[in-house]
Amino acid sequence: MRFDQYKFLDVIKDNLATLKFIRPTDIQFKAIPPIINGEDVLAIAQTGTGKTAAFAIPVIDYVARQVADTKKHHIRCLVMEPTRELSIQITEVFNQIGKGTGIRVLNVYGGVEQDAQIQALRSGTDILITTPGRMFDLIHQGFISLERLEILVVDEADHMLDLGFLKDIKDVLRHIPRNRQTLFFSATINDSIKKLAYSIVRNAIRIQISPENPVNKNIVHQVAFIEMDDKRFFLERLVNEHEGSRILVFVRTQVRAERVFKALERAGITSETIHGGKEQSDRLKVLEAFRNGDTKILIATDVSARGIDIQGVEYVVNYDLPEQPENYVHRVGRTGRGGKKGYAVAFCSKEEKPLLADIEDYIGAKVDLLKIEKDLYNETVSFTADETQNDWKTLLKEAIIEEEKPKKKGKR
Ligand code: ADP
Ligand code: MG
User: Fold this and answer.
1) Which ligand is closest to the CA of 44, given by its number?
2) How far apart are CA 254 and CA 244, in angstroms?
């Protein structure tokens, strides 16, 4: 089925065509009809499968018709997002699909002045997209009323729970009508997500698109065994060999992010970092630069990059393996989006092997090995633009090889 065969408003179909959304993705195909019928929906589908449009299209179609009929603007739909970045991204999707329909979409998030948001709320909003904190501030100050809400969307529910928004989601329920439609979207599911979902939906239609391997089939993902201290040389090499590609590098901590940034800088490679230790405005700037191609290499921690949809990320590098195996799926899911091919490589050190085993358990498959021949390994570590490091590195290497030789003989 193609989008032009659906009974959506023509202007919405035109917008979808402009976005080059020709056919619904699996989750869209399954979720859209029950949403149109006004049912509660609990939808689980891998990251990158088009969950945003799965709720945005039918919600916009419904709200646009209501606005056209009543000529009134009040908050009919609330979309809850875990992070400001995501709320901005989802707002963009609503604006693109809802262009020319007459609906008013407002994004409200914290960390910025609230005056403009209040102004927009005063003039009337149909769809509110928000992160919990700022929304509650505005509810308590009397600027947001959810009394006539018809549709509640909880998006990226797994991420919301990870970030500790359980109480906020429950608190929202006290401000909205019982008689409403609830749409609950998540990339992964576990017991606490199920419990939350079933506490807020009623007789929900449950849609789960769960392939055997939760990593999207468009993504080629491999693991290379590289020692901790050598990782930066391999990153440098990868970057140099793929000049002009958009590369997203994941590290475990903020400190590691800054360290990798410095290591690349020493090698003459420009990159940017994004993590929780940065000001919100800086994070947005960095994301925008990565999105528009000014920055080719972005070094990120897990939380700061979850759910972020940037077209054309060619490579994801798991510079450090994630401690939580589901984050592996989220990370590699930043590439290969919207049907494109993606490539991901993990740098796994000796110490990280147990983490790799956890990941393989979680995805139910082995991660393909990217075998690095010894010569290539040594060459990568020795021939680097990072001259200062190079010297001691080479010396140290030679020393180690000297030491190893007799041992190996002894074994055989
Ligand atoms: P999810 O929320 O499931 O992680 P998104 O909603 O962010 O995924 O969508 C992932 C990507 O797929 C986006 O870049 C989006 O533009 C693209 N996409 C969504 N639906 C379609 C479609 N029907 N046809 C083509 N591309 C699509
Ligand atoms: Mg999403």
Assistant:
1) 1
2) 25
The partner residues of 342 in beta bridges, in order of sequence, read 219
CA atoms of 363 and 211, how far apart (whole Å): 10
275-to-258, 299, 328 alpha-carbon distances in Å: 9, 8, 17
Residue from 6, 22, 49 whose mutation best tests the ligand 1 pocket (most atoms within 8 A of CB): 49
Written as one letter, the residue type at 40 is D
Look-up: residue for tokens 């997209």? 129
Give 287-311 pLDDT, tens digit per residue.
999 999 999 999 999 877 776 778 8
Q: Is the pTM of this model over 0.85?
A: no
Closest residue CA from atom 5 of ligand 1: 50
Residue 307: the pLDDT is 67
Domains and CATH numbers, the chain: 3-209 (3.40.50.300), 219-394 (3.40.50.300)
Tell me the two tokens of residue 291: 């999105």
Eight-class DSSP state of 217:
T
Instruction: With cut-offs at 50, 70 and 90, classify the pLDDT of residue 391.
Output: very low
Please list every protein residue whose CB sits less than 6 Å from any atom of ligand 1.
21, 23-25, 28, 45, 47-53, 309, 311, 337-338
